[in-house]
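Record type: monomer structure entry
Structure origin: computed from sequence
Chain ID: A
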Amino acid sequence: MASPSKIPITGEMHQTQPVTTRETALEKELQHLTRINSTLCLLHDSIFKISQDMDKLNKATSNTMEMMSKWTKIIQQANFTHEMIDNKQWNPSKQEKQEQERINQSENTNDDDDDDEEDKQLRILARKLIALESENMILNRSLEREVSEKRDRWNKAEEMANKRKRELGLLNTAGDSSRRKLNG
């Protein structure tokens, strides 16, 4: 495309009169506006490229947060397992042996009773259920504590990430899908 400053001005009046200072000033202004326009086009292209790069960074950050979340879950599960193994009070095989001994004792003492076999099995199952429920309560408390700690760490990490995004100007205040809090 030919630059507007290089397009010759044609007309009878122009051919008969020399170039006036007004026309020269207009041509300079046109050249100046053309340079400004090209600079603005370059600026627009740069802003578009930066926007694309920021989108890539945002996606990478989201993926990193997801990977960190999964890694945290794995570490917490490993820590929980390690704590249960190291816990001297928690011994499932010992608890099972004690329960079996109680069952054997109850069978020996109840031989004289006229209860039928189904009642014995029901009592045995009820005792096992009580033992398992108490163990389950202990494990649930431990899991609730772990989940609460994880939720607190996650929310703190999200708040820090959102604060950093706001500082960098990456956080959209309306409808940002990367902002989420774990609900209790």
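Annotation 1: Confidence is low (pLDDT under 50) at residues 175-179.
Annotation 2: The two ends are 63 Å apart (CA to CA).
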